[in-house]
Design goal:
By secondary structure, this protein is α/β, with parallel strands linked by helices. It folds into two domains: about 260 residues, FAD/NAD(P)-binding domain (3-Layer(bba) Sandwich); about 130 residues, FAD/NAD(P)-binding domain (3-Layer(bba) Sandwich), CATH 3.50.50. Helix content is about 25%, strand content about 15%. Strand 1, helix 1 and strand 2 form a beta-alpha-beta unit. Helix 1 packs across helix 4 and helix 1 packs parallel to helix 12. It is globular. The N and C termini lie far apart (about 50 Å). It binds flavin-adenine dinucleotide. Flavin-adenine dinucleotide (FAD) binds next to helix 1, helix 2, strand 4 and helix 12. Flavin-adenine dinucleotide binds next to helix 1, helix 2, strand 4 and helix 12. It holds the Pfam family Pyr_redox_2.
Length: about 450
């Protein structure tokens, strides 16, 4: 980085991982500039502020960020409490972003639309590693500006690019035209989005934790707002895996949520449609007609897409990336988190070496580093950015010595339920090559997002 070392390091996204990256860079004496598309830090979490996290505070805080906050007299939350998304923002991300050290380096309303090397397109190899990056940013006033950077850390998450409703990875025919009838992936149906759901026919699509939560909240809404109709479409042949093991479930929180959902389906409050792979959406004047590949149709006023997320790779088109062809995570990380084979998402803690791309000094971290896998944990991301900051500072030893108190999985197997509930043990790992499924004596911390791309049951 010699020729460009006076340039800042661009961090894309001011979610928990982007802010943590900035805190670690500052500790290393490096200069971050953070570009955040939304109006405030934590803009993606703002969309699900009504949802409770499944991991307690102690796993949701980054060490370098805490050191900054502690110095400001910040009051730490109770480590064992499970915060809501809103509390994660109000009690942690907002105070962190307001610190002068971070706030002075944070640009909000600044959406990164492309990253490249100055004067070089992807095909040019000469002097590539020593040429500054150019980060093209669309600012809130509509102006587009190019910013040069010594390195780039992409922590932009996946929230803005949900998976389509269609079954083949493509939008269903008519899906884009029906956008007005499709809600955000985790609407607050009893709170701020209530008016859009009360006394309407609502179709929830998907078979993970988000679908379960939304369905249960809709059932609460239906009690207060008669005429609210709840339809639930899953692609698999049954919803058994969403229900979990009920009272006998080894993971009590999953059992409770699942049992409640099962009762609501059995009571007819929720109308379940299995094997419903969506092919077409027809927008009509009064509603949308959702058609399955086998010809069945469901009429709805609003559709809730709980189908998971995928990374936005368009803005990285001019960079040389090494991504797993299936998961779209860095190549060596992909197989460790592939939802086809892993019902849980935790992997051995890993850092810069595993996250590296052929494009030197460029890293994808946080939720986006997991590509299409739904099982990312904040604690994993905090360790990623500690290691990446060390690598960018030239401290390869610290970058390679991965240390983490990670919520490690005790149920990491190829045949466990589709839910990604995460038991924890405290482990201190020292190698990126450690195997999966190593944790003894799991302790439940709760639910992950567990979207599994709309897969469910015996699909
Ligand atoms: C409902 C839900 C519950 C979860 N619960 C937990 C939990 O209990 N425990 C846990 O460990 N993990 C949990 N996760 C998973 C994960 O930790 C969170 O998704 C977390 O927010 C990921 O942090 P991030 O910083 O990587 O991404 P995000 O929080 O998504 O932040 C990315 C930021 O980048 C911004 N951005 C996006 N595109 C651009 C762009 N082009 N230019 C500039 N800025 C951009 C966004 O506005 C956003 O502010 C949960 C996820 C969900 C969806």
């Amino acid at each position: 980085m010699d020729s460009v070392k006076n340039l800042p390091i661009a961090v894309i996204g001011a979610g928990p991982i982007g802010l943590a990256a900035a805190a670690h860079l500052l500790e290393r004496g490096l200069e971050p500039v953070i570009f955040e598309a939304g109006p405030t830090a934590g803009a993606a979490i703002e969309q699900w502020r009504h949802i409770r996290l499944f991991s307690p505070w102690r796993f949701n805080l980054d060490a370098a960020s805490l050191r900054l906050l502690d110095a400001s007299g910040w009051e730490a939350p109770r480590p064992t409490a499970l915060p809501y998304g809103g509390e994660l923002i109000d009690n942690y991300l907002a105070p962190l972003a307001a610190l002068p050290a971070i706030g002075s380096r944070l640009q909000t309303g600044a959406r990164v639309v492309a990253v490249t090397r100055a004067g070089l397109d992807k095909t040019h190899v000469r002097d590539r590693d020593t040429t500054p990056f150019v980060v093209r940013v669309e600012h809130a006033d509509g102006e587009i500006r190019d910013h040069t950077a010594a390195a780039v850390i992409d922590a932009s998450g996946t929230w803005s690019t949900r998976n389509p409703l269609g079954t083949s990875g493509l939008p269903a025919i008519g899906e884009n035209a029906a956008a007005e009838r499709i809600s955000s992936p985790l609407p607050d149906v009893v709170g701020r989005d209530r008016a859009a759901f009360a006394r309407r026919r609502v179709l929830v699509v998907g078979a993970g934790h988000s679908a379960a939560n939304t369905l249960i909240n809709l059932a609460d809404l239906a009690k207060e707002e008669p005429g609210t109709t709840i339809l639930w479409a899953v692609r698999g042949a049954s919803a058994e895996k969403v229900y979990g093991g009920g009272d006998a479930d080894g993971l009590p929180a999953r059992g409770q949520l699942g049992s409640r959902l099962r009762r609501l389906v059995e009571a007819g409050t929720i109308e379940l449609h299995t094997g419903f792979g969506i092919s077409t959406l027809k927008s009509l004047d009064t509603h949308v007609s959702v058609e399955a590949a086998d010809g069945r149709t469901l009429d709805a006023d609003v559709v809730v897409p709980c189908t998971g997320f995928r990374p936005d790779l368009d803005m990285l088109r001019e960079l040389r990336l090494n991504l797993d062809p299936a998961i779209e995570a860095p190549t060596r990380l992909g197989p460790l988190i592939d939802p086809e084979f892993h019902s849980c998402g935790t992997v051995p803690p890993h850092g810069a070496r595993l996250l590296a791309h052929p494009e030197k000094d460029f890293y994808i971290v946080g939720m986006k580093s997991y590509g299409r896998a739904p099982t990312f944990l904040l604690a994993t991301g905090y360790e990623q950015v500690r290691s990446v900051a060390a690598a960018l500072a030239g401290d390869q030893t610290a970058a390679d010595t991965v240390q983490l108190e990670l919520p490690e999985t005790g149920v990491c197997s190829t045949d466990a339920g589709a839910s990604c509930d995460v038991p924890v043990t405290n482990t201190t790992a020292s190698s990126e090559d450690a195997g999966c499924c190593a944790a003894p004596e799991p302790v439940l911390v709760g639910f992950p997002t567990g979207l599994t791309h709309g897969r469910s049951g015996a699909a």
